[in-house]
Amino acid sequence: MNEIKPQGLAIEAKGLRKAYGRTQVLRGLDLDVPWGQVLTILGPNGSGKTTLIKTLAALIRPDEGTVQVAGADIRRRGNRARRIIGLVTHDTLLYDELTGYENLKFYARMFRLDSAERRIESVAERMGMTARLHQRVGTLSHGMKKRFSIARALLHDPLVLIMDEPESGLDQDALVLLEAVIRDKTDPYRTVIMTTHNLDRGIALSDRMAILSR
Predict the structure, then answer these.
(1) What CATH number is attached to the domain comprising 1?
(2) Number of domains the chain contains
(3) Domain annotation covers residue 26
(4) pTM higher than 0.90 for the full model?
(5) Do the Cβ atoms of 9 and 33 come closer than 8 Å?
(6) In the sheet where 85-88 sits, what is the strand order?
(7) Of 54, 67, 166, 214, which has the fewest Cβ atoms less than 10 A away?
(8) Domain coverage including residue 70
(9) Residue 187: its H or E element
């Protein structure tokens, strides 16, 4: 489904610096993530995990440094990078007034997906949301919204999956589904970068771990 061929590293970040006012959040951070790996980022609140996630996903620009996703510099080719990234954040990026199906249909059009109906059915089933597809998102619990958010991130079959505390708000059944997504090696190039507060889960699911400090 992705026309972009993997090359070089999945993610290559060099000298990342980001400040909010006088508060330095990222201070000269370097990060290399090879294709096919699961990298978990750990750190206390305020250590810059969410800022790093948003920077790697080409949502915010660093004050200094560079990020390349599949060889594409996000400063110059951010749209190309975003096409191969599936993103899960604390914001579900869903429209409450639309149904789950309508949300997924919207994103399918945005990514110009072929066989959109099949992909919607596939990701909804994968996250156990088939029965909720035609329910308005605003009526769902936080955990159910999070399931749809993960389904949205998987919709275009991204090569790179970037997730900020994806387990937040999920019940045990949903955690099992999430772990299956993270462990999925159907595509050997699929790369996962995620943050978590759960050290045991991070160790169990990861090939590598990175720890940020304040």
Answers:
(1) 3.40.50.300
(2) 1
(3) yes
(4) yes
(5) yes
(6) 85-88, 160-164, 191-195, 38-42, 208-211
(7) 214
(8) 1-84+198-214
(9) none
